[in-house]
Amino acid sequence: MSDPNAEQEPSMEEILASIRRIISEDGEEDTAEQPGLKPEPEPPAGHEEGVLELTDEVQDDGTVVNLKTGEEVSEEPVEEEDVGLEMIDAEGKPEPEPVIEAAAEAVAAEKLVSEIPGMESVSALSGLAAAVNNHRRAVDPSIGARTIEDLVKEVMRPMIREWLDDNLPALVERLVSREIERLTREAEEISQR
Question: In the chain, what is the straight-line distance between the N-terminal and C-terminal CA atoms, in Å?
Answer without folding.
Answer: 84
